[in-house]
Write a structure and sequence with these properties.
This protein has 752 residues and is α/β, with parallel strands linked by helices. It contains 25 helices and 27 strands. Helix content is 42%, strand content 17%. Strands 11, 12, 13, 14, 15, 16, 23 and 24 form an eight-stranded mixed beta sheet that branches. Strands 2-1-27-3-4-9-10 form a seven-stranded mixed beta sheet, with helices on both faces. Strands 6-7-5-8 form a four-stranded parallel beta sheet, sandwiched between helices. Pfam families: PFK (PF00365).
């Protein structure tokens, strides 16, 4: 994701009228100067968004840790008039940048005294502004939900786990997987949660004394219940309660000696740092990079060095050294064996992940049998992550003591009585499976309402968890509106949005949309690569999504598309003409290819075929065109780590909420739920998991086009256009926040 950040900072800097320099080889390049510091132009960062690592290099630099080294670095910056620095790296790199900033005035004074620069030059460059972007696969920096590179590292880990799972099942093996994380267990924790690992070791929460006996007992118990494999995940920094390291080989030997299982160790190592960045990392880095430039433009002499962080789906600025201090406090708590506090300092998300993992990893008998029965079903088109949500909902429901039913084939299956009770182990191995294991259909309840009511009564269903897309939301709304006619429908209902279109009201993200964006992105990467040999070619790619342009827009940002046409952002023939002219100009540069995305229902008349004919005709003699319709490949494939984790969390939170509601509406041996707040959509809204009554959401829904009336992601459209070509105004981008932007000099620095 670092290259996406470099691209965004460079293009945003040029866009606002600044000179932008790329500093190669990190702080070493800053100290050495010369050809390590080069001015960049718009094309300098073309075709790098899909590359792993960093094209401007990175190096550890002892010289920069000394004042003499920093003095040389200051001179190199002053010679080029650079007074703004964007640093992409971990907390060490960012701390070094803050020290450099605090010494800046003294360094310039020393350069004047040595006669290396004049007083006038020192006065012109009297202030150094710093902004940081956190690049770390460990996600170990406090103050941001995710650091650049973490999601891509999780993709690499899950690819390995999925591959290992098949061989482990074939040979009935136990695998011990060691992942990175010397001081932070985030990668181990999320991959453990997303793979349903049998046992997990993280440095923030060492196992209790005697863990060897308990682990072997649980592994043996799992095998005795029919499981053919065991997965143990261990962070490289795992320790026991006394602070002694726990190695992967020690765990392997323990399993072999005590249980006699065929056990293998796999150390993932630097595989986790490599490969192509995920869609999440590309979009995150692009947002952060643009925000970093705005932070530098708005900096004043009193502004402290800041770091651009992610909070929910928003980029925010936080004081750099405050975040560094909290990050150090976590390590201090671990060193002093205050492990519970260390987990809390990591943040709510980390603590929540840990608690959910402990809930779902091993079956714990319910303290008492509850009087409630719940049914779970999938509705609408299949979406990755549905099975993860079903698995966690089933298991947490069993922990609560409820009777849990699953329904095949959606509302149609409920009408036909395709209902069966499930146990804990019936959903084992579902986490990594794509599509819908229960089967799903688009049928709405109004077509078979009486039969649905009959089976709700027959199976005594008091809670209904519906996992699906717009049809799931619309179906539950129909059931709620029929409560006046059928008392059996006065039950607690919850919708978990799961659709690649991301068009369900009440949530910023639907299950399956991240997997779909990654699938579309990978296809577009290949399409772009195919054009590298055949010059002067424009690809018009059609994506799914109905009337919702989320998939096209986010994929467009992730692949660096030249344009993405969507229904929500109306366009005219004049816009199409401007795009053709932009591509014609582009063919005169070294980047002789184009990529245009089109949402399947973006315009009634400007169809994919029309765009192909228009571009082919207008570009005749300059470029040729090809069409690609991605189709159902966007619905398939194994779920991404995000969708597995998100589905797991939503399943748990939905059932806990339903259990609470059932207790409130239970009286005299029966459930009677007829208020609006007993039928909700669960969703992530900014940073909070919220429950929104379907009756309230009805007021803000465009049913004709199956869309929420307001969609947060539309503010990404300007970013897409700006990073593709600078034909929009700056005031449009920042919504009038700044009336005038002066010409400033920016630099990007990348180091550890």
């Amino acid at each position: 994701g670092m290259n996406a950040a470099v691209r965004a900072v460079t293009r945003m800097g040029i866009y606002v009228g600044a000179k932008v320099f790329l500093i190669y080889e990190g702080y070493e390049g800053l100290v050495e100067g010369g050809d390590n510091i080069k001015q960049a132009n718009w094309l300098s960062v073309s075709n790098i968004i899909q590359l792993g690592g960093t094209v401007i290099g990175s190096a550890r630099c002892k010289a920069f840790t000394t004042r003499t080294g920093r003095l040389r670095a200051a001179r190199n910056l002053v010679e080029r008039g650079i007074t703004n620095l964007c640093v992409i790296g971990g907390d060490g790199s960012l701390t070094g940048a803050d020290i450099f900033r605090s010494e800046w005035a003294g360094l310039l004074e020393e350069l004047v005294q040595d006669g290396q620069i004049s007083k006038e030059v020192a006065q012109e460059n009297c202030r150094l502004n710093i902004v940081g972007l956190v690049g770390s696969i460990d996600n170990d920096f406090c103050g941001t939900d995710m650091t650049i590179g973490t999601d891509s590292a999780l993709h690499r880990i899950m690819e390995v786990i999925d591959a290992i799972t098949t061989t482990a099942q074939s040979h009935q093996r136990t695998f011990v997987l060691e992942v990175m994380g010397r001081h932070c267990g985030y990668l181990a924790l999320v991959s453990g949660l997303a793979s349903g690992a049998d046992w997990l070791f993280i440095p923030e929460s060492p196992p209790e004394d005697g863990w060897e006996d308990l682990m072997c007992e649980r592994l043996g118990e799992t095998r005795s219940r029919g499981s053919r494999l065991n997965i143990i995940i261990i962070a490289e920094g795992a320790i026991d309660r006394s602070g002694k390291p726990i190695s992967s080989n020690y765990v392997k030997d323990l399993v072999v000696q005590r249980l006699g299982f065929d056990t293998r160790v796999t150390v993932l190592g630097h595989v986790q740092r490599g490969g192509t960045p995920s869609a999440f990392d590309r979009v995150l880095s692009s947002k952060m990079g643009m925000e970093a430039v705005m932070a530098l433009l708005e900096a004043t002499p009193d502004t402290p060095a800041c770091v651009v962080s992610l909070s929910g789906n928003q980029s925010v600025r936080l004081p750099l050294m405050e975040c560094v201090q909290v990050t150090k406090d976590v390590q201090k708590a671990m060193d002093e064996k205050r492990f519970e506090e260390a987990i809390q300092l990591r943040g709510r998300s980390f603590e929540n992940n840990w608690n959910i993992y402990k809930l779902l990893a091993h079956q714990k008998p319910a303290q008492e049998k509850s009087p409630f029965s719940m049914a779970i079903l999938n509705v609408g088109a299949p979406a990755a992550g549905m099975n993860a949500a079903v698995r966690s909902a089933v298991r947490i429901g069993i922990c609560q003591g409820h009777t849990i039913y699953v329904v095949s084939d959606g509302f149609e299956g409920l009408a036909k009585g395709q209902v069966r009770e499930v146990g804990w182990h019936d959903v084992a191995g579902w986490l990594g499976r794509g599509g819908s294991m229960l089967g799903t259909k688009r049928t709405l309840p109004k077509t078979c309402m009486e039969k649905i009511v009959e089976n709700v009564r027959k199976f005594n269903i008091q809670g209904l968890l519906v996992i699906g897309g717009f049809e799931a939301y619309e179906g539950v709304l129909q059931l709620v509106e029929a409560r006046g006619q059928y008392e059996e429908l006065c039950i607690v209902m919850c919708v978990i949005p799961a659709t690649i279109s991301n068009n369900v009201p009440g949530t910023d993200f639907s299950l399956g949309s991240d997997t779909a964006v990654n699938a579309a992105m990978e296809s577009c990467d290949r399409i772009k690569q195919s054009a590298s040999g055949t010059k002067r070619r424009v690809f018009i790619v059609e994506t799914m999504g109905g009337y919702c342009g989320y998939l096209s827009t986010v994929t467009g940002i992730a692949v660096g598309a030249d344009a993405a046409y969507v229904y929500e952002d109306p366009f005219t023939i004049h816009d199409l003409k401007a795009n053709v002219e932009h591509l014609t100009d582009k063919m005169k540069t070294d980047i002789q290819r184009g990529l245009v995305l089109r949402n399947e229902k973006c315009h009634e008349h400007y169809t994919t075929e029309f765009l192909y004919n228009l571009y082919s005709s207008e570009g005749k003699g300059i470029f040729d065109c090809r069409i690609n319709v991605l189709g159902h490949l966007q619905q398939g494939g194994a779920p991404t780590p995000f969708d597995r984790n998100y589905g797991t969390k939503l399943g748990v939170k939905a059932v806990l909420w339903m259990s609470e509601k059932l207790q409130k509406v239970y009286s005299k041996g029966r459930v009677f739920a007829n208020s609006g707040d007993t039928a909700c959509v669960i969703g992530l809204r900014k940073k909070v998991v919220a429950f929104s009554p379907v009756t309230e959401l009805k007021k803000v829904t465009d049913f004709e086009h199956r869309l929420p009336q307001e969609q947060w992601w539309l503010n990404l459209r300007l970013m897409l256009k700006m990073l593709a070509n600078y034909q929009i105004s700056l005031t449009e981008y920042i919504s009038g926040q700044m009336e005038h932007v002066t010409r400033r000099t920016l630099s990007i620095e990348k180091g550890f």
